[in-house]
Amino acid sequence: xxxxxxxxxxxxxxxxxxxxxxxxxxxxxxxxxxxxxxxxxxxxxxxxxxxxxxxxxxxxxxxxxxxxxxxxxxxxxxxxxxxxxxxxxxxxxxxxxxxxxxxxxxxxxxxxxxxxxxxxxxxxxxxxxxxxxxxxxxxxxxxxxxxxxxx
Length: 151
Ligand code: HEM
What we know:
Layout: H1 2-7, H2 12-40, H3 51-70, H4 75-90, H5 95-114, H6 120-149
The protein binds protoporphyrin IX containing FE.
């Protein structure tokens, strides 16, 4: 995992800028996740989701974003990121839905970061750090999917 972090160029500066993105995600999370799971339940990507499952997914997905952006890539974060791929594969979620879903969420986050009343270079640094984090996160989730694809 450390090699992947090195390969993506995730260093102290990147971690600091990534942490600055977390309050943005938190501030839009309610609308973001409500709209996301409302549309997810209409596209038949997985079997019907009970309302209590949706509530748990919203809570756990938000916890995951927090860990990704602020936990300094702890052992716990790595376990959770791989577990997400495993859980999705257990519910038969085709990776195309995971990837499309991920991009949909990140586009909203990008829009909110770009709208911050901050100098352009600060917003650039935040976006730069954010893109590295999501590359890492998707790589880990898709990697646990792919071990299933070759099973
Ligand atoms: C269309 C796309 C997606 C669908 C249909 C979907 C659906 C699901 C389902 C059905 C589960 C298992 C729920 C359970 O029974 O416990 C799950 C787990 C999970 N998903 Fe997704 N998911 C999608 C995309 C994403 C994305 C983009 C993320 C963000 C990283 C994400 C984060 C999670 C997390 C954190 C869990 C584990 C929840 C737990 O710990 O209970 N999902 N997802």
